Amino acid sequence: GRTFPEAGMVNRIDKLTSGVVLVGRDDEAMAKLQDGFSRAEIHKEYLAIVEGIPDPREGNIAAPLSRRGESSRFKVDFEHGRNAFSSYETIATSASGLSLVRVFPKTGRTHQIRIHLAHIGCPIIGDQAYGVPSPYIARQALHCAVTAFSHPVTDEYIKIEAPLADDMKAIVAKEFGEDVIK
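RESULT FIELD:
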């Protein structure tokens, strides 16, 4: 029989987060894509539904992260943490005090977006570790909407978009109106 190179995960998203995940078709493609992530050459956009209204409504979050003791949770740690940087913009706010936020992580630390949004006082709804409980969703309201990169072989620019997951789509329609995300 014929053997094929083994495909593998290039990046991961947090458990219970929906959206785009990249898989390399072979070791060479995986290595090039992973190198692109480490050099911050791969563009990612997330959508999050948070409690509160970010102030300012758009900005940057530079808050290093470290693991909390022996647990799997992380925290902002300016003394010992690893650099972590995210940009964000508020897309919409609701009368009930929720905001729809687009986040652009520049680094890829574990739980980075979830911790960064909580750090600025706008935790993600449904997030059991860093956010606030929600009767509307059984997971964190976080979605990887876009991943864009140069193809590892052809160098063609590729943009992959994932439609908003149904559970988040229902909250967006109810809180912000159906026209907010197209």
